[in-house]
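Please, is this right?
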Amino acid sequence: MNLRPRRGAAIAALALSLFSCARIQFGDRTLRAPRTTELSLRWQRRLVEPAALDWAPVVRGGVAFDHANDRVFVGSVDRGLRAIRSEDGALLWRFEALGRIDSTPIIADDATVFGAGDGAVYSVDSATGRLRWRSVVGAEVVHAPVRAGRLIVVVTGADAVVAMNASDGRRAWTYRRSPPGGISSTGHAGLLVDDNRLFTGFADGTVVCLDPTDGSLIWEQDTAAEFESADGQNEGHQAIDVDTTPVVVGDTVYVASQAVGLLALDKVGGARRWTNARLTGVSALGTDGRALFAASLEAGLVRIDPFDGRVVWARSIDAGAVVNMLSVSRGRMLVSSVDRGLWVVRAEDGVVLDGLRPGRGIAAPALLTPDSRIFVHSNADILYSLDLER
């Protein structure tokens, strides 16, 4: 990581002090290592003091960026949504919800919208932090809301997709599936909006495509319909959840089932194009618009040919449970791990170029701004502002 001088020696000294406090490591290098190539620190801000944190919490709330007003928004396990000046990390205001905030907020016009662990969605004024509305959706919300025209849409921990009016929070429609019997994992998929279609997956192994304007079903695909293991176990004996957020490349939507594997579905009609049954237990999917990437504890980080499901390369990067992947410039991916931290990985061959290891790992998605700044929220409840080498 490259520590470039910023506004004199005093700021450089402050940056070194902040590094020391957080015990940050970059890749296999310590703080005092020589220059690396991809990342440099601007600032860091602790959101919650360690004594107030649950033991080893998993912090899933990412960052929303308001470039026009030089601020970012981030929620925390202390139930607070904070507005922070993006240039230097100064606190602008704090709003307190009724539950911990694991949802990444989104900016909807002049409001900031997020879900919380109290089973509600909140809209607050972005300039002041004043509450505009609170809409009860019945279960915790841990994924980012999505905007679909005049609507805000969320998926809840009770396998329900709920849409509400962005202006006042009134319920517009709900799509719900009954939870399955048998084995189920604890996570669930987020939402993807693409070409005026809404995609998500459920604990019963079903992937759906909904019309976001009214919640009507366009198609559904039961990924476990033909599933039966070699020893005669059926769906009730396996975790058949689709709990990674779908991704789209061209006219194909890609989903991952815990037991069935990685699947490619036709975006328009939902027909299955191929299945890679070897890629089970997938914890994250990503794309750079051309290739498909997946991660699991067994396979590591994998690049897949999106046309036939063939594995192009697989790399073990000592990343633990990879939970988020983001494509960035110059053929690179940002890969975050709940156990370790953040890696910059070359998409062509999976080589790790640089990394941030902040101690407790990173479960939240990283945010990349148009001017190549990265904002990322660690499991130690510290918000980092980094520069990505252009």
Remarks:
- The CA atoms of residues 59 and 379 lie 5 Å apart.
- The first helix runs from residue 9 to 22.
